[in-house]
Write a structure and sequence with these properties.
- The protein folds into 2 domains: 8-349, Methylamine Dehydrogenase, Chain H (7 Propeller), CATH 2.130.10.10; 356-457, Immunoglobulins (Immunoglobulin-like).
- 7% of the residues lie in helices and 48% in strands.
- The protein contains 2 helices and 41 strands.
- Strands 32, 34, 35, 37, 40 and 41 form a 6-stranded mixed sheet that branches. A 5-stranded antiparallel sheet has the order 14-15-16-17-30, with no helix packed on it. A 5-stranded antiparallel sheet has the order 18-19-20-21-29, with no helix packed on it.
- The chain is elongated and about 150 Å long.
């Protein structure tokens, strides 16, 4: 457990501040209502345009505050009134496409240019939130953090230990994917480089999460029946220390941004009192300002730096999208409050579902220059009930000769990969196969084969044999053969009456 240690003057000032009532200020707000029955949740910016996804109707909508118009696009061509799709969140990839989380277990993409939908993944346990990070879409479901690569279509997941959970939001920051577990009071960080998780426990109903400059800001959605106080929790990623800034309402979404050199944190509130605790809160310079908006509960939000505005979704007795453009007061960097949280920080590697072993064989290990050698690599399970059995198709294997990669391929259905290599120079060669592991639903550990030594020899022209000198036995055999031949001729001539 780690705690925040603040200088005494700052601590005293914050203690005084904590006793003061939170000021309520007027705000500049524009609202665009959606038709009855819409439940807008996810909200993003694409090229300066505001897009929202609706839990109902299977719809995404483009909201134009300049003209006051809203355009709807439906995955079924018309409003889906059977809650088939249940869109819950939006993310934008590098090409400007919208990726939609669907609690029906589907990952959906929408192209704002062609206005076309496509379902790229189905059959995943309900997806409630997602984010785009380092070229992939990431979305947590109980016990698994899934990814989808739009460029290759690759999909997989990294398992982690968790009780039954509900995930509030996900965000990319600092080389990690951050997401909250509302039920169990946890914030998770998955490091994409090291394939490891960190879990921070001890939060009160964490829903929204946002990363900026080494800090993670967490919206603690505390209500009257819950323990604790509504707050924005501030996590110092470097030290792991966490503290709270008490706020009004029940924080839901959160976003952090810079105004000049100041860090400003804005949060949406879905408070129980519509006239006092529903709206937008601004935390800056150690102070909190709350802007009440007399609409149903305010949920997710996004910051538009170019327009200097915050866009948010709301729904309840009415639904729609709002634009909040009150300039926040610029102060110092956000300071933690004196109310620290006892937060346990645990770091653990990705659970390896399967250990692997890799073997390598060659059809010959002593050959001549120019000869071809066939190598066969077989990838097998090394643990569990499948130990010793071949791993299936699609696992990439690399072949190294004297430390240099010479080929790469994938295993067949029998876990095998074959490659023929021609050795063009004489010498001694060390050959090894490598499987680098990774997530192939589920995760497989890396493994390497034993080294094979191949000797390649030069071709040597054969030396013609030297004739052997005549021997005594040879002379005798020649004399005998001559005598026999002479006798045979004499008998032949005698029979013919020819004198010898």
């Amino acid at each position: 457990m780690r705690y925040v240690a603040l200088p005494v003057p700052i601590l005293l000032a914050l203690l005084v501040l904590a006793q003061l009532p939170i000021p309520v200020a007027a705000s500049t707000v524009r609202l665009l209502d959606l038709p009855e029955g819409y439940i807008p949740l996810g909200v993003v910016l694409v090229g300066g345009q505001v897009w929202v996804a609706s839990y109902t109707y299977g719809a995404v909508s483009r909201v134009d505050f300049a003209s006051g118009t809203v355009e709807h696009y439906y995955i079924e061509g018309e409003p889906d009134t059977d809650y088939t799709w249940m869109f819950t969140d939006l993310a934008v990839d590098a090409s400007g496409r919208l990726w939609i989380a669907s609690q029906s277990g589907r990952l959906v993409v929408f192209d704002p240019v062609s206005k076309e939908f496509a379902v790229v993944l189905e059959g995943v346990e309900g997806i409630s939130t997602l984010c785009y990070c380092l070229g992939r879409l990431w979305f947590p479901v109980p016990g698994k953090l899934y990814y989808y690569n739009p460029a290759t279509g690759e999909v997989g997941f990294y398992p982690f230990s968790t009780p039954w959970a509900t995930y509030g939001s996900a965000v990319c920051g600092g080389g990690s994917v951050w997401f909250t577990d509302t039920v169990n009071g946890r914030v998770y960080a998955f490091n994409i480089s090291t394939y490891s998780f960190r879990v921070f426990t001890g939060f009160n109903r964490p829903v929204g999460v946002y990363y900026l400059d080494g800090y993670v800001y967490v919206a603690e959605n505390v209500r009257s029946v819950d323990p604790g106080t509504p707050a924005i929790a501030v996590l110092d990623v470097g030290s792991g220390s966490v503290s709270r800034v008490p706020v009004r309402g029940s924080p839901y979404g959160v976003v952090a941004f810079k105004v000049l050199t100041a860090t400003v944190v804005a949060y949406s509130s879905s408070g129980e009192d519509p006239y006092l605790s529903r709206g937008i809160g601004i935390v800056s310079g150690g102070s909190v300002t709350f802007f009440n908006i007399t609409v149903p509960a305010v949920y997710k939000l996004v910051y538009d730096a170019e327009a200097g505005a915050i866009y948010f979704t709301f729904y309840g007795s009415a639904s729609g999208v709002g634009q909040f453009s009150e300039p926040p007061q610029v102060g110092e960097y956000l300071l933690p409050s004196s109310a620290t949280i006892a937060v346990a920080v645990n770091t653990y590697p990705t659970t390896v579902a399967y250990q692997t072993s890799l073997s390598l064989e060659a059809n010959a290990t002593t050959v001549f220059v120019g000869d071809a050698v066939e190598f066969t690599a077989v990838l097998r399970y090394a643990n569990g009930t499948k130990a010793g059995q071949p791993v299936g198709a699609g696992k990439p294997i690399k072949l190294y000769v004297n430390g240099t990669e010479v080929a790469e391929g994938v295993t067949d259905v029998n876990g095998s990969w074959r490659y023929v290599h021609v050795f063009n120079d004489a010498g001694i060669y060390v050959v090894k196969a490598v499987f680098e592991g990774g997530t192939f639903s589920p995760y497989y550990s890396a493994s390497s084969s034993s080294e094979l030594v191949v000797e390649v020899r030069e071709h040597v022209a054969p030396t013609p044999p030297t004739p052997a000198p005549p021997t005594a036995a040879l002379y005798v055999s020649v004399l005998v053969a001559t005598a026999v031949a002479t006798a045979a001729v004499s008998v032949y001539l005698a029979k013919r009456g020819v004198a010898g």
